[in-house]
Prior knowledge:
Strand content: under 5%
Oligomer: single chain
Shape: elongated
Radius of gyration: 25 Å
Structural class: mainly alpha
Number of helices: 5
Amino acid sequence: MTPLTLTPPQPVAPVAPGTSASMVPLDPAALPDLDQTAGAYVDRVVSLDPDSAEFDRTSESIRTMGDDDIRSAAEVSNRMLQRPVQALRNGGFDEGEKVSRSLV
């Protein structure tokens, strides 16, 4: 028997700074509003006293930004895995696989 050899994938190539902006397509008409919103947010953050509760709340909002999207993506992955796991609990076959079960 040949021993199993695992080979790691090649590292991801670095993204050149000039190309990263075009990797996520955005409507050019929306860019001025997005720039203004981002600029106002940064201005607000840098104007806060670093020792204030408001700065803590704002920092926390930055840290948790995207958590809902990450949670939703994880739920989709979990739902996709539920069917194979359920099939394994039934001995590798479920009711939709009567033909496979009859062959065993």
